[in-house]
Every structure is written in C-alpha cells, then in structure tokens.
User: What shape does this take?
Amino acid sequence: MARNISFKQAISEALDLEMRRDPNVIILGEDIVGGAGSPGERDAWGGVLGVTKGLYAKYGDRLLDTPLSESAYIGAAIGAACCGLRPVAELMFLDFMGVCFDQIFNQAAKFKYMFGGKAQTPIVIRAMVGAGFRAAAQHSQMLTPIFTHIPGLKVVCPSNGYDAKGLLIQSIRDNDPVMFCEHKALYGFQNDVPQESYTIPLGEANVVRDGEHVTIVTYGLTVHRSLQAAEALARDGIEAEVIDLRSLSPIDWDTVIDSVERTGRLVVVDEANPRCSIATDVAAYVAANAFSALKAAPRLVTAPHTPVPFSPTLEDLYIPSGEKIAAAASQTLKPALAA
Amino acid sequence: MSTNPFPLAKEDLLKAYRTMRTIREFEERVHVEFAKGDIPGFVHLYAGEEACATGIIMHLSDIDRIASTHRGHGHCIAKGVDVGAMMAEIYGKATGSCRGKGGSMHIADLAKGMMGANGILGAGAPLICGAALAAKRRGDRGVGITFFGDGASNQGTVLESMNLAAIWNLPAIFVVENNGYAESTSIDYAVAVDSYVDRAAGFGMPGVTVDGTDFFAVYEAAGEMIRRARAGGGPALLECRMIRFFGHFEGDAQTYKAKGENEHNRATRDCLKLFAARVSEAGVLSQAEMESIDREVLGLIEEAVVTAKSAPLPAAKDLLTDVYVSY
Assistant: This one.
C-alpha cells in the first residue's frame, strides 16, 4: 500500500527492509547512531539528518558509529564487502570524498578488474549531494561526474522517495560498488511510496513528462526544476519531454536517444560544474549517436564553473533555475540563424 | 637424533624453509628475467625479507586475510598463491593469477585469503580492518593482517586504521616491514619516532620490534599477537627490522645506499642463511634435506618461468570484461 511519505523516510525504510532481509547488511558511518560513548541518550542523531534514526533499536551492533576517519571506515567497509558482508557506508557529505577517494576509486572500483574477475565488492556508499542549504563550498557540491567517470563504480541519484526506496534496495543487493547520492534539498519532498519492498533496476531512466517538441535530460533536484520549466513552456504551447536519468552509471542511453529522435531537440540540465559533466557527457553522446535527428544545437544548463557560494543571493544564482531551463528549451526551438 | 629446541615441529621447519627458499628463488629469477627485458612494467622484489612473510603467515589459514603491498610476491607465496599463476601474471599472460589484468603489483587470491598486493601505499590497512570486522561478526576467530613498509607507516590510512582497530577491538595485526628505506629515503629522515612501539602505544595497542632477519623471532612474536587477536584481545603492531637485497624497483641503481651495503648484508644478514645455520647447528634439519628442497624449488621456478613465457596472452576481448559483476 502506498503512503505519501518523505524522501528521507523512504530511504530509511529501504535500509530497514534490507537489514531485516539480509543479516550481512551492516551500516557504518559518522554519527549514524549518534551519542556513542556519550553520557546522554543512545541513537541521539540517527545520522546528521536523522535518516538512520530508529534502526539501532532494531539492529543494535549492526550499526557502527565510526570516528571521524573517512579513509579508515570507508576502506573498512570495502574490505568487509570483499569478505562477505554487505556494508552500507554513510559518507555524510559527498564533498568528504576528498579524504577517502583512494579507497573508493583505487580499491573498490578496481578490485574486480585488477584481480581478473575474482573479487566482488558489494558496498553502497550513501552521501548527501547538492546545493541550496547555504552550506557553502565544501558541503554543497554535485560531484556525480567524478564518480561516473570511474569504471567499476555505479552512480545513482534519485529525485523522489519512490525511486530512492527502490533504487537503494537494488543498490544494496547489487554486487558492484554503488555511490548512492541523495540531494539534501529533497529529504522533505513527499510522494507516494509503497510500504512493501520493491526494486528499481539501475540504468533505467524514467520519463517523468511526455512531450513532442524538446527533450530535457536531468537527474536529482533539477528534475523538479525541469518539470517547472516544462509547465511554463506548456503555457507557450511548447511540450517538453522530461527524462529523469535516476542512475548515471549505468546510464539509459536508449531512452535518451529514443526521445531525441522524436523531438529533435535536447536540453541537458546538471547541477554539477559544466566541464566534464553529466551534461557534456549526454550532449556528446547524443551528438555522436543521433546527430541527424537534431534540429538545433543541444543546450546545457549547469552550475557555473565556480565553487558553490555561501550567500543565499549567490547560491540561488548558482543552481540551475526553472527559468534558465525554460529559456534554454525555447532557444532550441528558435529558427537557426542564417550563416 | 637430537632434541628439537624450536617451537615448530620438523615438518613445519621444512615447510618454513621451503617457503622462504621459494620466495628467494622466485625473486632472484624475476630479477634475472626482468633484466632480459621480457617482463613488462616494473617489479619490486622481496628478496632478503622472506623471514617476515613466512614467520607471520605460517600461523594463518585460508580464513585469515592479509593485505599486501607493492612488494607483495613474498606475501603471496607464503599465503599459498600458486607460483606458476603468479609468474604468468608478472609476464602479463592470460593464465596469470589475475588473467594478466593486475601484474606484479596486484596479485590476489581471495580464496586463499590474499586480498591483493597493492600499488597504493598504506591502502591495505583500512581494508584489513574490514576483513577483521567481518571475521569478528562471523565469530570464526579469523584475523586480518596488513603489511606495510616504513615508508607507508606515515600514511594517514595506516594511522586512522590503527585507531579504528583499537576502538572496535578488531582482530587486526599491523606489520611494519621496516627495511630502512622508503624508496630511496631513509627512515632516519622520514619517521619522527625512534621506535614503532611508541606509535603502537599512541593507539593503545601493544607493539613489538623484532629482528626481521630472524625467522624464529618473527614467528614467536607474531604467534603471540595472532593468538591474542583470535581470543578477542584486539589489535597489535609488529615491527620487523629487515633487509631489502635489491633496490626499490628493478632498475634502481641504489646510489643512496652505502658502498658495499648490499654485499655486507647478503654475507651477514641473509635470513635464509641464518635460518639454515640455526636448524642445521641444532641438528634438526640436515644440509641434505635443505639441498633437496633447494633442487625442488629450483625446478618449480624454472617450470613457472618456462610455462609463463609460453602461456597465451590475453585476448583483445578481455580488455572489456570483468569491470562489473553486472552492468
């Protein structure tokens, strides 16, 4: 039965269901229980935003609070994954990858290939991504392209609770390392989520709005901004198709190409910085594989090539807005200027 | 027949000698073959350090996990990785331990509890905390052992992992293979403390320094730590002071070493010669028994090289396989 619940609650349910189903699932991270060794209450936090709150009461020492040592505990989760456990490690903010990246991209991502296929590393690393929290340059980045670049890693970034629950359950059952990126501005977003367990395959995009004039490809928070843009465009008689990629590696090229072949126009919206981004990746793939279908140059709507600013005035300018997305879509529909 | 004064039965002494001799022969042969130009990439040889890997890993079974270093051949052989598959891997052949995709620096055999040689210094320490955590959760009394050099002892991963292992009371052993050189840089320059025992104390765990050229000293110290860890006593650090006969990598001119240093070490601090002298003087193993092992090992390594050289190369299609379990 579906209930209207938050993105945060959906993620919490996915963790609960998988811990109940598989005793090899453990969760570790900083303050994921909270209050370890402190004089006050145990399960004080359940993670900095309370996503894992309540799981300690059910699963006890299968939740491990860690010291502030990302290299050690992310690496320990990876080592445990090689030895039969299915750890879900919480990195809190994906920005903290800087202190443990070696364990992710030189260890977990490489083991299967480098050891000739004999290793598998079924780990999920959950982390918050994205701007909008006035958290400034080191707690707000959309670093999804960096992980998508690495062979051996899978990268998921859901836009709503229904997808988050199904994708997280699938990620925990997956036998490859998965970076599970949760946009922090979405934790309060509510939609209908079934109570029971279900999975959504990685690498299947979701067409969240049908349209015939222009294709908007995006993921995460900007799915919602793209839908706002599509509403605005519809008032001008432009029907935009909005594709939520949901997973960036593997990526559902077929759905993207199929849509562009119908609409002939492409806008890619990415909250990441523009160079070597998901936006450039999608635009390049479409240009190389569906060039003859294109009636206009693809448009990219991304964050600027800057760190994330602190001041709300500046941060609001940083994240791609519905207006910018709508403007880019309109531009693809303008007749090309004569050379 | 004289009484055996050693803490190992004769068959285990023979096994220890065979393992050390196999590592030595393997490394000396790779040294020769590398100089011929037939081996791609670069290799880091373990010759001179055999007593450390052997003395520690003698205490382990396949359920115990080790994480190795860039200088990993000795750990692999001691942990029971097939020598022929290792040699084929070093030659980049399809029959190698990693089907030619890993090379010297990434030989692994997870079924044997060998979690990989590692090209990133200090990277094995967090991984072995995970292995120890898994063993603790299973309750199978398995231990995790990470090897790292005096160079990598300065990595944050090692220090963070020692703290993590201590607070979680993990069955993890941290082995510093101190050969005095981080590549070309002396430990006197790069390590701020005089003794790794002090570093262990800093993380609330016992630390012991042994002469890493003395198989028996390594064996006994490691045995005590491993028994303690299996019984739930938590992590420990073992520093083995040892000798690297060759350079950091093959081709290293070793101009940073003192004149005559290698020759002197080979003459006076060769762990294999020291072991042979001890067991023969005690009358427990005879020269003839050890020479018989020498001949067998020579044949084994010769066969490994001949087989590796004639083994098939990976196929072009292998470039794209084994990236993911499913994608």
Summary: DSSP finds twelve helices and seven strands in chain B.
